[in-house]
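User: I'm curious what two different proteins look like when written out as structure tokens. Can you demonstrate?

Assistant: Sure. I'll show them one after the other, since each token string lines up with its own sequence. Here's the first protein:
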Amino acid sequence: MRYAFSSGELLYEQNKKELPEGILEGQFIEYESVEPDTDFYCIGKINDKDVKVRFNISNNDFVHIKNKHCFGILMQSDLLNTDWQSYEILSVEK
């Protein structure tokens, strides 16, 4: 399912994450479930180019994320700003 960042997250720039490739500015987060092996996707821009980034949350941050999800207070910025175990840029505008 696709989730947009809230206006508050955009206002306080909580939709941004610094990566070696540049600053990822997220517009949406997509995921189907919140489990340790879930692939999360951030759709947005890096250096003004459209991207889709697949990422996995580190084990250290997963418990916190799972608890927020169970209580119904999980925000897109919570996912974006966790410690990522791994990520891959899947598509870039040419």
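Here's a second, unrelated protein for contrast:
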Amino acid sequence: MASIQTVPITRFRSNELLTFGRALETKLQDSDFAEAPTVASQLTAYKDALQKLDDSVITGGKSLYTTEMENADKKRDHLQSGFLGQIQIFQNHFDTTKQAAAVRLSPLADKYKGKTEKSYEEQTSITANLIQEVQSDTYATDIATLGLTEWITALKESNDACASLSAERISEKGAQKSLPKLADTRPVFIEAYNTLAKRFNALAEVNGDADYVELFNWWNALIDRYRLLLANRLGAGKGGTTDNGNSNQPDPGTGSEEEEEGNGNDGERPGGL
């Protein structure tokens, strides 16, 4: 009788397990069993466990916002350094009014010089303080005299963008921490797979295997493929013995005489090839 062979699923690496699981899911969704009530609960549990496994396989890594934050930080650095540099330049201006305004702003420029070397979040706070100071009554007139108001507007927009990206990255990290852990999802998926395979084998035994032979042929070929992958990775025999169609034989009398006489291949031993 055709049946689904056992599989050394616990030996799969997590990504192997996920790929194996997705391949089977796709095959079942494209089969006549996708909406079959006889396997509905087992298939639903399998899909749910597979998705949770997927969510937990790859976590952490580089933030989606890292590159964007790096670029935003560079823009902010250039604007802040450029603004402070303008104050330095105006101290040598031929217009004495502008020169005097620059001299009055000089202590402020010295105070914030080199602050672009601070950490991303610290610089956000420092830059916000700089903007607040230059917009105060103490410095606003001199800033306007030097025509630096637009520099401040651009610097504020850039700093606000940096603060927003930082908040978005924090939200991203929080979401990642809420994802299921692989140590929890892996055994649940393996159990769901075994339950599903057991259900199909039971149905084939009770109802006859005629409606299941095609699916089982593919399923067992998939398992054989992963046995060979395990053998190549772990060594000869570590994947178990390939089935080579022995589990795909229908009940006696359901196939042709030629088919019945031609079956009974010996399995290959993964890694011994």
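A detail about the second structure: The chain is about 65% helix and 0% strand.
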